[in-house]
Amino acid sequence: MKIIDGTIASPLGFSADGLHAGFKKKKLDFGWIVSEVPASVAGVYTTNKVIAAPLLVTKASIQKSQKLQAIVVNSGVANSCTGQQGLDAAYEMQRLTAQKLKIEPDLVGLASTGVIGEQLPMDALKNGLSQILVSGKAEDFAEAILTTDTCTKTCVVTEEFGSELVTMAGVAKGSGMIHPNMATMLAFITCDANISSVTLQKVLSQHVETTFNQITVDGDTSTNDMVLVMANGCQQNEEILPDTEEFEKFSKMLRYLMADLAKKIAKDGEGATKLIEVNVRHAKDERSGRMIAKSVVASSLVKTAIFGQDPNWGRILAAIGYAGADVSVDNIDILIEGIPVMQASSPVAFDSEETRDAMAGELLTLTIDLHDGDSEAQAWGCDLSYDYVKINALYRT
Amino acid sequence: MKIIDGTIASPLGFSADGLHAGFKKKKLDFGWIVSEVPASVAGVYTTNKVIAAPLLVTKASIQKSQKLQAIVVNSGVANSCTGQQGLDAAYEMQRLTAQKLKIEPDLVGLASTGVIGEQLPMDALKNGLSQILVSGKAEDFAEAILTTDTCTKTCVVTEEFGSELVTMAGVAKGSGMIHPNMATMLAFITCDANISSVTLQKVLSQHVETTFNQITVDGDTSTNDMVLVMANGCQQNEEILPDTEEFEKFSKMLRYLMADLAKKIAKDGEGATKLIEVNVRHAKDERSGRMIAKSVVASSLVKTAIFGQDPNWGRILAAIGYAGADVSVDNIDILIEGIPVMQASSPVAFDSEETRDAMAGELLTLTIDLHDGDSEAQAWGCDLSYDYVKINALYRT
Predict the structure, then answer these.
(1) Exposure winner among A97, A120, A170, B121, fewest CB in 10 A?
(2) CA A136 – CA A72 distance, rounded (Å)
(3) How many Å apart are CA B368 and CA B329, to the nearest integer?
(4) pTM of the complete model
């Protein structure tokens, strides 16, 4: 597998673009991805009981068509908690896109991100849709889906499948609340491999547990979260089937890309100054390990301590204890940036100043050895800073 | 029921005091409550798997003796994550207290709060224990158990039981992380009523679900949380038995006192500028209602919005949706300080400036009507401010 520079349109047969349509004041706020042919598709959606209109429409369409040929996204307005009017607007967004691209409406996926409770401005939408071109400036797509993210988040990898070089590309936008109104995590992944929707969904669902579901910025699950993967088969490789060597290769590619985007989202969490990576070793089972890793990275106390470069292992141990996981808490080692700060669940002497200095970087790694089994797990998050409070306490203006 | 001024030693037959023993630099850091006679006792303890030594000792002793005659508390050092040495120290603390008071060790309850992972300084402990007097300055007890709480938390009520006037008193210390190392919520309740330990435990366990378990400051469950109730029967009323009118009266008293202390803890959360009260109406059942109320009051986004006086109902709806409760999300009304901001799960027009002004007070009430059943629930918390980050990010010095 090779990591390359590229865009969401790097895989064969995809085009993408972004522009300013009028959902926001000035910034790019409307983007699309189009495949030359209907692509196999897989999706995962928010677990929030309150689900935004574009997700309801996309999920229903994918269930019907089992394929997708285009994804249209606006930022600035989330079209969430907007009742029947919002649902009608989402269907109109889908219908108008399909008309423009001369494809079936059920082949169009939708996503919105931004302020909750505001209706989609139809003028901006029509303005955006009128400009859809099948080949565009694909790097602008990554920018058009952002809200208050501070940077675009892209990852592109290639891998040989027989004589074909398959390319897979992903773009994501951040968690954090972004507009001080609503968090949304969106990720779109394109690939030119030949793989069925059923197989694609299997791989996506498997890896989402250990990647996107293992990041947290503030513990608030959005109404708009969604990950969509399209594979259009334009590379004409032999179909990738489950339980084959090719499948494992494909799975590894997708896992790498998802983990990379997840980490980029965590690192760009609102107000964040550091990416925190928690590595849990020797957990009783994988699920317990994941629960513990996520509990630690989600703790407000751990997050503030790391912001303050305080090697406060007591807070880490407390977060392990309340994770709700099946774990024995009598023989735990904790290392901060490789420096042992707790051994066998008891204090050990360590140089506070040296440890503090080691915590100064942009990546902070916590290692937790539970000595309780053979499973491993990871989670990613960010520190909790003054700026998080500032961004989210500001009155909407 | 009457609410009166008083101390933890207001009920008949109790004495209490607090002093500086040397666990902290200057402030009061050692306190005790002593009953003239062994008292019926009930306790609830942290659900964290990591449990501090004093809790382990107290729980075991209460199981054996079913009575308690004294509670000794130090602040400054939590005696948590201190291994065998910490457990030995806790047993020594219990043994020395018993020796001084000439009672059985199993009649002595212990609590510690403060820094995690540090051993109990035995010199300070012996210094404190040497000064135990059976009658003391009881108001100092409420101060001696504090860490970075900004105020003492006391509540005293009286009620007639036949011809006897029963007094019940409670003292608590705050959640928040206090020393930037460990949160601890402690509450001690004394009463001169005649009631068995079994009956007392029943009432305590029932009310803890709707009071102390419904508050949150930062979602981190401490290793030292504990609530202990002692009833010494000195008022010589007829024994209070379950399923009687007297029992209901006693239950109501205890519930009032527990809710009052819980709210005082929430209000004094680290960095808090406001007490937030969430009232859930028409929930499917009580448990769902409680989960929803607590999810809303625990949301970092709701907390920061309230700090910024932003009537951001979308965040409230999102927190209802991810509460994990059994709830229909299609017909929800939300009121902020009595002003409707969402009706039937759709936006309604409201005056933002007026609402913002209404949010300026020290108490902020959110009302959520689920139109989904007949149950009600409440939860309390505080806003999330710059000072929370400041208090918890500061390097321990």
Answers:
(1) B121
(2) 14
(3) 11
(4) 0.82
